[in-house]
Design goal:
The protein is of the alpha+beta class and 90 residues long. The chain has four helices and four strands. The two termini are 18 Å apart.
């Protein structure tokens, strides 16, 4: 069972692009909210992220993961697939 994944990004952000690329490699589908020039979406992101203002901000299954660094740490520890709801086969 896959979980809902939501990203808040800016179009010129290299970390945003890297986060989206990692999720694409995992085969994960996500909703991307491009916040450049969209103050209402930016305010939504800040509220959901507990006041954090940097991008990307990533939410998986309603849980705030954080940014790109947090996403890659989860992947390096082998925890990202489980959080994404992906089934890993041996």
């Amino acid at each position: 069972m896959t979980r809902t994944i939501t990203l808040y990004t800016k179009d010129y952000c290299p970390y945003c692009k890297a986060a989206k690329a990692l999720l694409h490699r995992k085969g994960a589908r996500f909703t991307n909210h491009e916040i450049t020039g969209k103050p209402a979406l930016r305010a939504e992101m800040i509220q959901r992220a507990g006041g954090l203002r940097t991008v990307p901000q990533i939410f998986i299954g309603g849980v705030h993961v954080g940014g790109y660094d947090a996403l890659t740490r989860l992947d390096a520890r082998g925890e990202l697939d489980g959080l994404l709801g992906l089934v890993r086969t041996a």
